Amino acid sequence: MALELKNVTYENIIKKFDYVFDEGNIYAILSSSEKEREVLGKIIGGLINKYDGKVKSIARIGYVYSNPDDMFICGTVNEELALCLNNSNYKDETKNKKISDVLKMLGLDDNIKNVNPLNISSSEKRLLSIAISLITNPKILVLNEPELYLDDWHKRNLIKILKKISKRYNKTIIILTNNVLFSYEVCDNFILLNKGEIIKSEGKKELLNIDKELEMSSLKLPEILNFINCASKKNICLNKTYDIKELMKDIYRNVN
Amino acid sequence: MKSSIIKVRDLTFKYNDKKIFDNLNLDIYEGSFITIFGRNASGKTTLAKLLIGLYRGEGYINIDGYLLGDYFKDKIGRNFSFCLDEKNPFDTVSDSLAFSLESLQYTKKEIEILIKKYSQIFKIENILDKLIDEISTSDKIKVNIASLLIHKPKIILLDNVLCKLNYNDKKLVIKILKDFQKENKLTIILITNDIQDTLLSDRIIVLDNGKILLDDTPKNIYQDDTVEKMGFELPFIVKLSHNLILYNLLDKVYLTDKGVLDKLWP
């Protein structure tokens, strides 16, 4: 157990959130409400302290904002990362190495050190925002809509990086999002919120079977599931899948 | 004969010594809905900033018959609205909706009627008196777009803002934009890095490294594997169509679920 939330309630936004997060796993918390995502993320991340219930964690938690710009306060990327290490006792040499290491871990070029964080591309900003949280080596990372603004290539890159971080370094990653497809691609387990309450929490495969719950929670179904649903309205039964190859085989079988 | 409401001629632009655009030429036609699609850092937002006059390059940009520059800024501004994010400088939602109308000297009564009408269209009647700071990002985007359309501009440019709308709001806003396109000949320029959005428009411009790689209707662009070969992930229904064509289950690419399903199972 890396993090446990017990009966956490906050105003009328989060109600009786009860969950145990384990090490080395990636969790997707799905909610169509921006407020729910923000509040829950901040409670877990320790930025909101006045709530009912308990949050127990074994270690430090890093929080990554939905808008990367909100995290930048220095003139260069290097200063930004160095600032995070200010409270540590590391020698300058060690600090520099840690900065280079975290940039490398996220696939950012070392040259980016001298650039103003506000002038780098949107995908670099996203990666830098994660670097800022990661450099102090938290065991738990909370990310709010990390996939926003990223194009397909960078989204896939981010998924690879997050999986590497969780598996190789045994970190717990908690992602708050309204993107069902992204959740399926990145997570091990998901938690579905509706009106601030958990209505489902399962392994990722279950995301295939909960159309009604997703629609009820105002979440957009991935296009592939939408297609399968439209087919069932024509009385064609296709197996639910996120894999287009599987779908192809199934269509082939069903066409007379 | 289509009339160009925006003409870009020989646009060249450098940013920090890097050449972003090199003699770019582009025509955008009145009453059309175009998406400008590209990866992060493909030049999309830079192009948007050049079109709205935030950046200035070499060559020229003509908007609605006026040359973009210092002279005609207010003439162009009246007819060319844009939304780049959810930021909004006004206090309340109704302040935001009223602003352009007040500037154009509509009467109090006219403004009241229009605010009522547009808040109903955009389903923001219940937040009219709320402070912009208090509402959700999705609502902020709706308020911004409503505030832009309320004075009936000829052109609207949206840069990567639809992704911040929640699912139901996005459907609503797209419907409103298309209604305005149909009824008022609104020219819509949608800039996005979500390839699914390209299926919404009449014309797709694919931008990469400041160059126009493709410029055609969705039907034509997705007919073959050109887009895929360029390394872009295709919209689901296009990808499915291509696969079905390979298996001889489909004769051509269809851009809707219904199109594919009706063909497979008539």
What labels would you give this structure?
heterodimer, A: 256 residues, alpha/beta, Rossmann fold, 2 domains, three-stranded antiparallel beta sheet, 9 helices, 39% helix, globular, B: 266 residues, four-stranded antiparallel beta sheet, 10 helices, 10 strands, 37% helix
How would you characterize the overall build of this protein?
Chain A folds into 2 domains: 3-207, 3-Layer(aba) Sandwich (Rossmann fold); 222-256, no CATH class. Chain A contains 9 helices and 9 strands. Chain A has helices at 34-45, 77-84, 92-105, 122-134, 152-168, 180-186, 211-216, 223-233, 244-254, and strands at residues 3-10, 14-21, 26-30, 52-57, 61-64, 140-144, 172-177, 189-194, 197-203. A 6-stranded mixed β-sheet of chain A has the order 5-6-7-3-8-9, sandwiched between helices. In chain A, strands 2-1-4 form a 3-stranded antiparallel β-sheet, with helices on one face. In chain A, strand 6, helix 5 and strand 7 (172-177) form a beta-alpha-beta unit. Chain B folds into 2 domains: 4-234, P-loop containing nucleotide triphosphate hydrolases (Rossmann fold), CATH 3.40.50; 235-266, no CATH class. Chain B has 10 helices and 10 strands. Chain B has helices at 44-51, 73-79, 93-103, 108-121, 137-149, 167-184, 218-221, 226-229, 236-246, 257-264; strands at 4-15, 18-29, 33-37, 58-63, 66-67, 80-83, 155-159, 187-192, 203-208, 211-216. In chain B, the strands form 2 sheets. A 6-stranded mixed β-sheet of chain B has the order 6-7-8-3-9-10, sandwiched between helices. Chain B is globular and about 65 Å long. The A-B interface holds A 32-35, 119, 121-123, 148-154, 178, 218-220, 222-224, 226-227, 230-231, 234, 236, 244, 247-248, 251-252, 254-255 and B 16, 38-41, 136-138, 160, 163-164, 166-168, 193, 195-196, 231-233, 235-237, 239-240, 243-244, 247, 249, 257-258, 260-261, 264-265.
| Name of the CATH homologous superfamily of the largest domain in chain B | P-loop containing nucleotide triphosphate hydrolases
As a percent range, the share of helical residues of chain B equals 25-40%
Q: Can you tell me the number of structural domains of chain B?
A: 2
Would you identify the CATH H-level superfamily of the largest domain in chain A?
A: P-loop containing nucleotide triphosphate hydrolases
- Give me the strand/helix succession of chain A: EEEHEEHHHEHEHEEHHH
Chain oligomer state: heterodimer
H-E string of chain B: EEEHEEHEHHHEHEEEHHHH
Strand order of the largest sheet of chain B: 6-7-8-3-9-10
Question: Major sheet of chain A: order of its strands?
Answer: 5-6-7-3-8-9
- Look up the CATH topology of the largest domain in chain A: Rossmann fold
